[in-house]
Amino acid sequence: MARAALPRRLNWQLAKVVELVEETARTTSIVLEPADWPGHQAGQHVDVRLTAPDGYQAQRSYSIASGPEDRHLVLTVERLDDGEVSPYLVGELRAGDELELRGPIGGYFVWQQSLAGPLLLVAGGSGIVPFRSILRHRAAVGSDVAVRLLYSARALDDVIYREELDAFGAAGDGVDISLTLTREWPEDWSGHRGRIDGELLEKVAWPAGDLPLTYICGPSGFVESAAGTLVSSGHDPSRIRTERFGPTGQ
Amino acid sequence: MSPVSRGFLGRRRPVADPSRVPPGQYLTSDFPVLSAGPTPHTPLDEWSFTIHGEVDHAVSWPWEEFVDLPSETVTVDIHCVTKWSKLDTTWKGVSVDTLLQEVDTSAEYLTAWSDGGYTTNLALEDVTDGKAWIAYEYGGDALEPEHGGPARLLVPHLYFWKSAKWVRGLTLTANDEPGFWENYGYHNHGDPWLEQRYQGD
Fold first, then answer.
1. Residues of chain A contacting B35 with CB distance shorter than 8 Å
2. What residues of chain B lie within 8 A of the CB of A106, using their CB?
3. pTM for this predicted structure
4. I want to staple A134 with a disulfide (CB 3.0 to 4.6 A). Which of A42, A52, A223, B125 is the partner?
5. CATH code for A13-105?
């Protein structure tokens, strides 16, 4: 595997909250202006640290939703009901607040033009977040790498970035967006239904023979299942990059 | 000194013994899974464990011989760089000390390598004197593939990315050579008590 450039030290810094955008009932995008952002690659994440009045601290990692070329750094956070940090970020944080963070972190689950394609992006739930960064980056650099994105959400109301994804798909420059809804769907729903399985992947994914570069992001059980299905249908494991979050759910 | 996050109080869960939780970590009773790629499924009859590199002679054990080696059962706390810690995890495996008895070496470092291409680097002193095992059972059961089975390195005093899943061998080296995550900016040593998450920490 390729050796990454020598990373610099990751110092904690304060980022000003410019705006909060409610994406769905459970997810909010936090638009940030960091004091000293060194830039990032599409697909990387940051660590966020909260401090209570008595000095107690909590840290969590969040994927970056903005493209490297965007003016602001954006995190999209899903509220976990029994969580400690996400309910604060989604429910308490306000524009004008300052948020402590450091990054960017991670150098493997990233896409840049030199990695070419074709790209297969498979997202479960808030696993779509790093893919918005990748799609924005692809558009910003004028890449013509063909992309197929398969996004699994519980219901239409849970789909994050729906309009933007529709626009990527409608641009006619090689991005194909497929949605599958696993719990409920509108009566006239013309997209896919049910969890991602071998049948759906065969319909939507690039054939193994096209040697796609695949990124899978979502809850652990989702990633395990999607990656396992692709490998057993002949996809090269070394061309599949995964990012998992949350409990095993198994 | 971090400024107070307006409106943040924290949702601290009572911890029996806070001295067992390193800075910046939270406790989980779950066992989260993290990996850079798909889970390999190497059949046991194709599995072996190898020690080679800067040694007088390379040694390799097929699965049947490996699980016949003297084993130890240990209960340890584990700490992942993604912030979760899990207390009192019980593993069975072969101490790295036992394996290294089979070779003569002047090496001071090693690279653990795994099915799927993962690598991580360690100082020899971090895996000797009862500090590391090649574990093949977790909680009394065969180690599941998602958690690194058939066997993973277990180095509980360092962040868990050093405990390479699907480990197949150790390459002893004269020089310290960064492994997979170490090349992507993660700390070379990874001591959770010093919060050595990323390079420069």
1. 242, 244
2. 184-185
3. 0.94
4. A42
5. 2.40.30.10
